[in-house]
User: Fold these one by one.
Assistant:
Number 1:
Amino acid sequence: MPTHLRFFRCSLAAALLILLAGIVPADAQTDPADRARLPDGPLHEQVLNVPGDNGNPVTLEVTLYTPEGTGPFPLAVMNHGATGASAGHRGTRYRFTLSAYYFLSRGYAVALPMMRGFAGSGGSIVHRGCDVAGDGIASARDIRAVIDHLATQPTIDTSRVVVAGQSFGGWNTLAFGTLDHTDVRGLINFSGGLRSSDCAMQDVSLIAAAGYFGAHTAIPSIWFYGDNDSLFPVATWRGMYERYIKAGGRAELVAYGNFMKDAHQLLSYPEGMQIWAPKLDSFLTRIGLPGTLLHPEYVPTPFPPPTHYAAIDDVAAVPVGSDLARDMYRAFLTRPFPRVFVVGSNGGAASFDGGVDPLGRALRACNPQLHCQAYAVDDHVVWVKPAAADAARVSEGPVYRKTVPANATATIDFSYSVNSDCTARSVPRLWLTQRPAHGEARVGQRVDFPRFPPNSPFAACDTVKVAGMALDYTPARGFTGADFLAFEVVDSNSQHRMIRVALTVQ
């Protein structure tokens, strides 16, 4: 009887609809679906042929990403999942994943090896029935060979390595711990596990194997599991974790409850990053590896919070100027997450869904003269009615005045929150409520120095860079004169500020 392995691999599909005059998709000559699955930052992508385990020779296909700079960079090895894998289905090269872009944003080189039997790697898929520990360790030996090979590259610092994986790759990551690689500082398991059709006791085998891994692993790990995981029920992953800890393994469990329709797809959606990225930052910092945002161009634009302006399915409430735009909104409501619906001052609209950064792509594609604003994201309305927003801002206090240079980008605001030891407490939420009429404003995460006054108890933190949210303004080329913008900030203490800025461009 033929057997097959069932794993999971996330993908970042993307689509867009545009009706708003003045909006054109970025990289219009590139397939939008593929382009939207990639971050804005450069990947410096290489596809390598790397020797696998010396004891069982095979050539492995490995994708390598590096951030800007010359290195040497710490290394993150991100191991793929799979679905419906069999001798006749090898899948495609693993390269579209938010986890890789997260590591790039923290300054890591990222290696994405294809296990034997997958995509362009040689050999056959490894499976041993209920010996799921043996399956994982066989793959782990190939992962070790990839790390050892990359040690020969001058841009890679393989004395600072973290190994991560999702689903099948998460299981292989836990198995890797038993090899006791001296340069690997930590293991990251996203919904790790294994399903094999020729094992009648799959969950029992997983729990027992987790105990074996814990007894033979000294490397610390962090585990991410959700309650509505379609492959691994709560009793199974909790049993795995408890057996791993009882056997002596060092692990932190992040049990995040339900996530969208399937917690197994945590890495498939930018919405999941608010769950796992802060936890991962803390874990990496504790084990002596970088856990601070350095390159915000690799991570998605945060979604604004719900405003409850209208029900998500109230088509009549959408501030657009034509029946065609309302039909677009109806189509938007049928699209999968992540999705955004953007409206402009001319009554037009744009709908983006899928990909790494649908909101950022929508706002960057908009003509600044149209004052585009997100109306809805996923199943929440986030729009602020301009008249109501203006009245609220007037009641909040005076207009701040700032002079900025012509033909240059200026930082209008950098919002941050720090602990007493000057580490970042959290990243505030910041979003525009009124776009400038004569330039472009852009919101994004950044690492920069705080600016506490000299008499502040936190003044010493002004010499330590922290992660925060920045608002930059770029006037239209050749423009001088007056401009105006407004934004809102919610900090780590849930303090909500509405800020108006009158700009003088000269």
Note: The CA atoms of residues 429 and 490 lie 5 Å apart.
Number 2:
Amino acid sequence: MTTNDMEQRIRDYFAACNTGDAAKIAAHFTDDGVHYFPAGSPFGALRGAQKIGECWAHCVATLGSHWTVDHYLGDATKREAVIEWTHNKPKVKQVLRGDEWYRFNEAGLITEIRAYYACPTHAGVSEHGLGDFDYKGRGYPIY
């Protein structure tokens, strides 16, 4: 597995997420894959490829969710990668940004994602991100 393979897997996973098709999403994970979230988030830890797929399909259906991969770094020798992402939720007029650390198995499937949000989400806040960071100036998607 190369760093390009890992990046392509992540980008294909995000493309699957954006379709809202739970089976397409789940196909990028090992059966026992885990997606961790910050403490206090609505999801806790999603355990299992099917549960991960169903969660993101639900978000697309209810929030209009759309995700982008904004930056990527990978280490093929460790089969680990990190990305910076944007999650647009147009139905609730909210944008969330963060990082995710990925682990892959020998076959190139995702075994683990650890998500870190730029900041905790708060009711009534329309865009979550780093304070005073020039997202537009750095070429990030603006909604």
Note: The longest strand covers residues 94-104.
Number 3:
Amino acid sequence: MNWLPRPAEGNAWVAPSLLSADFADLGPDIADMTAAGADLLHLDIMDGHFVPNLTFGPLICGAIRRLTDLPLDAHLMISRPDQYLAPFAKAGIDALTIHVEAESPVSETLAQIVELDMKLGISLNPGTDLEEILPYLGQLDLVLVMSVQPGFGGQKFNPVAVEKIAELARRRETEGHRFLISVDGGINGIDTGPACRQAGADILVSGSWLLGADDRPGRVDQLRGDS
């Protein structure tokens, strides 16, 4: 299974959000982001119910898997993730990130993901208190902090994400957890990304700021902290 260790101190892994890629021709964008130095790919799965948008499902994930060897994290913004776990495993997904706000029982869903041999991730929305995910921290491989409300484009980065990242990093060190900390929503290499890195984020998810750039390698370096 493809997965990542903690990045070097002061750096972060870079995860392009393929929702900003050209879905009429995904191959060149995936190849280009790989050549630019991306570390993993972030796949936004939306069901039109948990969030007011529809994207794609396991079929497209399987097609993406055939185009890359990079780790794939599927961010399930769906009401009942427990009903779709096996198809995502079959598609070749490495990590499944479910929302603590979803309708599926969290503990049971995490146990099913373990049985399917995928990495465990939990995400929480900006308005959700960190207390909601604390009981699961010891099981997790990934915590995804949303810095915007999922399902809506063009939102401003919510600085509450930085506070949550810092608290997660503190708990990880004091309690001996292994999870990586990821952040998604309004992330760039100018101000929001560096602030999240400084707070302890290990993975920066970036969509249009990264995929819409002419100099993608330069922006990957900015996000990672290499420039």
Note: The helical segments are 26-36, 58-67, 85-90, 106-115, 160-175, 192-199, 208-211, 216-224.
